[in-house]
């Protein structure tokens, strides 16, 4: 019975998008995600391989289901995590404003990775500078961030997973932008429709199996 | 890199509130990276190293225990060209699943998960994230003794009264088999190109098999990952081992049949 209630709650959305978090190890990808999902950031263990979280929210009057994939940052795992680029409508490139190398690696490494593995040409990118709560340790200026975002043709925000400043805005702005792109909107709504169809079938199946076991 | 991970490994344990213990973790991982330049440091190793420091007071002892453990596992962490060693284990997992649960394998392929990356973490950190701290250590011990002698686990599982009665015989038998298996391994390892599969791969296969009904209903890779994430903390080491052993036997039988 537990599964049927779960499908009901996940069916209450109009659009479904896949979003990917990438960037160097320790920049706060998992923290950013956890901060967005559960308002709390605990001590987080390093991500091994891939993980994901689902968040439903309402943006621009539409109920959205976001499947947000979180990846391991270490270089060795790149070929493994690259298979998760497929079908993503949005990609968030994260760096740590207190560690300059994580910023330079975005253009040197991660942006190229996106070009190479992202199957979706219209895919919306967003550059995010995390850990702005540690202002005194800042090593990358806001202006530099803006400039790189321009160069990459991506959105830009600075945030703090710890204080939750700008965290929600980050995901909202990205999804709003995705919804402006007709091809992505189409992808998001077909996966939404498919989802409802499958659920109807499943509901029929469960009622059938229920009646058969009663008889 | 080591420093980044040391401060976020097992932080829920009181043990690592002490700076002194964190330093040990840093030392051992840093020395290992220098010691084994080919592997250096790779994420996941801090999860494997942490228990050694908790179990062994002496830092040098902990290092050498970790080093021995890495002798078994370093292949997983070694990067060659564009791939990590663990990918070989993932493809082993794929062929095992194909044999013991073809329907599930087919389904996973259709979902685009034929590379089994979703099982990556289980193999990489030897189920440390899936089991509790104590359970994962229990599991490790069992795995290692199993790999030494596949019958040992069943000896432990026998009725305690029964084993007490036949303890003399059972002991002799187990020692003899233990040597035999080792010798057999060395013999076949020299000739056969294929090294024997580690039990960890069968453990993952047993987890997949156990969740097979749910997994074959999954509509996307996200659901596959979700189902596997839900097992975290709910796994029984003993059960997992015995079903891995059963699968191993089944696999060997089927593989032998197809070779005939």
From TrEMBL, chain A:
GO MF, one annotated term: GTP binding
Where would you find this protein in the cell? Cell membrane
- Keyword annotations: Cell membrane, GTP-binding, Lipoprotein, Membrane, Nucleotide-binding, Prenylation, Protein transport, Transport
Identify its membrane topology class: Lipid-anchor
Which Gene3D superfamilies does the record cross-reference, listed alphabetically? P-loop containing nucleotide triphosphate hydrolases (3.40.50.300)
| One GO term of the biological process aspect | vesicle-mediated transport
One matching Pfam family, short form? Ras
In terms of InterPro entries, this protein maps to: P-loop_NTPase, Rab, Small_GTP-bd, Small_GTPase
Q: Which terms in the GO cellular component ontology are assigned?
A: plasma membrane
Predominantly, its location class is membrane
**Task performed by this protein:** Intracellular vesicle trafficking and protein transport.
Which family is this protein grouped under? Belongs to the small GTPase superfamily. Rab family.
Name recorded for this polypeptide: AtRab GTP-binding protein
Taxonomically, what lineage is the organism?
Answer: Eukaryota, Viridiplantae, Streptophyta, Embryophyta, Tracheophyta
Name of encoding gene: LOC102588475
From TrEMBL, chain B:
Every copy of the Rab-GAP TBC domain together lies at 1-147
Q: What is this protein called?
A: GTPase activating protein
* Cited SUPFAM superfamilies: Ypt/Rab-GAP domain of gyp1p (SSF47923)
InterPro entries named among the record's database cross-references:
Rab-GAP-TBC_dom, Rab-GAP_TBC_sf
Q: Name one Pfam family in it.
A: RabGAP-TBC
The record, for SMART domains, names:
TBC (SM00164)
